[in-house]
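QA checklist item 7 of 12: single-chain prediction sanity check.
[x] sequence parsed
[x] length recorded as 264
[x] structure emitted
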Amino acid sequence: MRLTVIIPAAGNSTRYAEAGGLRHKLDEDLGDRPVLHRTVELFTKRDEVGSIIVAGPHDDADFDEFTTRHGAKLGFYGVRLCQGGAAHRWETVRNALALVEEDATHVAIHDAARPCTPVDLIDRVIEAAQTNAAVIPAVDVADTLKRTEDAPDAGDADPLDAILGGGGKANSSIRQVTEDVPREGLVAVQTPQVFERGLILRAYAQPDLDSTDDAGLIAKLGEPVHVVTGDARNLKITVPADLELARAILKVGPPKERAAHKRF
């Protein structure tokens, strides 16, 4: 197996910022290295990996800034950078797929915000990909699942409600349960997802590329997708609290405060 790893890193980190993050989540400190570098390092010493492609922002100015922040260090690892898509993740992956070399037998696609992926999980996915054309890791859903909808009356009326279009309700986040969802057979999908090169190229040659993940595009072809056991530690950093969990998993502390004389 000769594996090319694609790491999409073009997102705006919107949910992270909305939850109180002060910078892009991929730039956050994780044991004296940015989250993005930690993620790339998962693959730099693996014998199967022939190349790594990181797809950064689409906008020229943003990509130049991204390259300034990350290019030198990632270049030390032999990583190739490319610009991602303008609006959708599939655009970003498609741009990176165009750079996959002919000698690659398989392509792995891994979330840039998953820096804690255990080595044995990567081992399982790659081993299964030796005999299966599309392999993904996933964990069984353990929690009770319920479908909800916005509650018709989320709380006492607020004088600003008429102006804010509902945003002024006292408890505007309250929803009501509409039904229980059986969890038998349901799994929460993770990355890295590994595919035979020809298969993932066929998947991205389809006219309709709307999907929540790359395995979904394989399923649209009518091809089987096989699941191996994921790992709860393989979290995706989405909000600042996830960064604290990642630090705990990797046993690293928060960044040290700069000395007073170096703050300006």
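[x] summary fact logged: The chain has two domains: 3-139+188-262, 145-181.
[ ] second reviewer sign-off
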